[in-house]
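quick q for whoever's on today - can somebody do inverse folding on this one?? i tried earlier but teh output was garbage lol. tokens:
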């Protein structure tokens, strides 16, 4: 079985994440979201709690075939979980399967700063998603990176989070074309807003 997985804080999960999964499923048998407790490369704390981010992911992928969520990082006793730990866990869990880690192009230039990056690259293939405004450099130093064609992710969780925190989405900015409508309903509920 061919398995692709995508890690991240998903703060919040958005339709870009869903479109990545759908596109990847044209090339793999199963797609796994791995929500992080905390991203080791980001200083800011997540706006939504782990349980809220998990609930939003569950809402977003409900009724979607061959998509699932793995709770390894959320259930970890560590405050910060590094990708190498997740990769090793997934390799143990899916010993007979082929594993590929999905990354956005914005992360490619910093890969060699990741903890044990050279070990990650030996254990899994890397599938890269194009992102506007980002250009890779020194790709020749990575051996197992392929690009997913015809998919350009141009939705940012950071941008969406800034709108949600300010609550501007209620009147000024429509986020229904960026976040699953049922997830938007859930965000309204969390923030105690009426959707009208």
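ok took a stab at it. sequence:
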């Amino acid at each position: 079985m061919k398995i692709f997985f995508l890690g991240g804080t998903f703060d919040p999960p958005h339709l870009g994440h869903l479109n990545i999964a759908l596109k990847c499923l044209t090339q793999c048998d199963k797609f796994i979201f791995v929500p992080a407790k905390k991203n080791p490369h980001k200083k800011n704390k997540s706006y939504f709690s782990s349980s809220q981010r998990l609930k939003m992911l569950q809402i977003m992928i409900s009724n979607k075939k061959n998509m699932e969520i793995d709770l390894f990082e959320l259930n970890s006793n560590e405050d910060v979980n590094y990708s190498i730990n997740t990769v090793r866990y997934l390799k143990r869990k899916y010993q007979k399967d082929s594993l590929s880690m999905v990354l956005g192009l914005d992360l490619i230039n910093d890969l060699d700063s990741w903890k044990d990056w050279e070990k990650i690259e030996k254990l899994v293939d890397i599938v890269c998603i194009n992102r506007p405004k980002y250009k890779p450099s020194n790709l020749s130093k990575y051996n197992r990176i392929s690009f997913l064609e015809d998919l350009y992710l141009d939705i940012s969780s950071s941008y969406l989070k800034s709108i949600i925190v300010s609550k501007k989405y209620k009147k000024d900015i429509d986020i229904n074309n960026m976040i699953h409508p049922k997830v938007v309903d859930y965000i309204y509920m969390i923030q105690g807003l009426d959707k009208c």
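fwiw Strands lie at 2-8, 30-35, 67-69, 98-104, 125-130, 145-152. also The longest strand covers residues 145-152. so keep that in mind when u check it
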